[in-house]
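note to self — DONT lose this again. spent like an hour looking for the file last time. sequence + predicted structure for the chain T wanted, 594 res
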Amino acid sequence: MRLSILLLSILLPATAAAQDAVEYVLTVDSADLSGWTVEMRIPRAPRTLRLAMAAHPEYDDRFWRYVRDFSAATAAGPAQVVREDSAVWRLSGPGGEVAVRYRIQLPPPDGGVRPSWVPFLAPTGGLTGGPHAWMYALGAENAPARVELRLPRGWDAATALPSAGPGHRFTAPEVATLLDSPVLIGRLWKWNFQVDGVPHRVAYWPRPDGVPFDTAALVDALHGMAREAGAMFRGLPYPEFVFLLQDGAYGGLEHANSTTLGAPSQELAGDRADVLLSAAHEYFHAWNLVRLRPAGWGGLTHLPPGRTRELWWSEGVTMYYADVLQRRAGLVRTPRLDVLAGRAESYLENPGIGAISPEQAGWIAEEGPQANDGLGGDHYLQGELTGAVLDLVIRDSTGGRRSLDDVMRALLANHPQPRGYTGADVERAASAVCGCSLAGFFARHVRGAERLDFAAAVRPLGLTARIRPEPVVDSAGRPEPDLRAWAYDSPGETAPRLLVADPRSAWSRAGLRTRDVLVSMNGTPITDRRGFLGPMRALRVGDRVRIDVLRDGRPFTADFVMGGYERTRVEFVDLPTVTPEQRAARARWLAAAP
């Protein structure tokens, strides 16, 4: 059963008393895993405290919805509690020591695979910490905290928080560290390694029905990533790092000194590629997004997350380095040119990328399918390939002496948090490293939506790009049906709407548009997303399709015969003549050499 929990952190205002540590006791009752109880003691509290739940800049899932049985008391009796808004509580009383008690009761799990960053409780373990778990006092963000976890017999705990003695006791110097240090609890497997004398810990929560896998190979892979990152950045920025891995979960979330990662045992026992890619991505964020952060983005706040135009760099270029780190550590078997070709195909197939710049793609990332008539950029993919092309440009302009590594190091040195960086800072740093003006490149391909020229990008390697359309067929060579349509739920509406993102698709050519309200398909009413997606996926080439929709309240019918479709294929081939210098540059690039 997947459950999330909440630990409330009540701190003092920014006065001399604000340095008193707040003590927390979290109790997990193995007889009731529907939540847990927290007791807190706040010494020398003022007469009024305002408590807030922080909003994560990426994953604000509004855990304030699940607070139950919140109470506060002083030596003179109960304190008055008023909820000022969704994420802020106000406590009023005579001051002095305040004891707070509460419980979090979460709704049942949705039945899907759990994201690795969402706290949960199960019979053999769980995850706590982060903005899902802690409140803080507005105005007292610098106050320290002491935490004690009272766990079922046999459970352990793993976190980047400093230990505070025997048992499961930890400290945090201030609120930001407390919120940025999740805790994995339960019957854990643990390993350790060091890189340049810096300790790294790996904790894995296994499901009871998990399958065996090579644990030494997993730890060796993480060790290799850390070793290569330390070499790239010429040192490690943290005193210790903890990998918090969970069976039966997916995805990951970055933190300054740790990362939470989904690591299904079934995948680790087979092709580990997805798990290792996610691990490399989240680990690299310890530099690019945590210590090097877009200006004005992130930070400690209870307000809804803001926006930034720099996600193409913080997320997309991190995707680029997730591949690079693994290659330098000897963890990737797929040839680099094959990976670049596949990513270029996805890039060229997305019609939104030709209309939405990398900066704009990050800005509108949370707007949903109704924005831009269904056209969506992809700041991950756009940033990854923009970074790859920038690296090639820099290597060519400097005779291989410098690379994108130098840009990353320069940005980290000159724009650490909380100052952060802007897109203009990236352009200046890249131009300085390149020894050339990249103003035109950034105007066209970062602030603008002009597509990257892959043929020109690989020319310094003695290659060109052969780009052509190719029919999409199944394993028997039969044309696949054009299923490039989707359905989505719009808030406050009962009927699903249509998403048609590709103007080349059969759905678009039949006159259907994004935001059309779906009514029926071949005479069968559509009452939810599944009522469209199920029959749509069953279509075959040659089938007759009739879709009834409402557009601006008026009926519209599309009637067409399902056909096949084409996809873009990219192949990198030798130029007619290749120089020895180009072959040498290619060899270094293929090996992901610094």
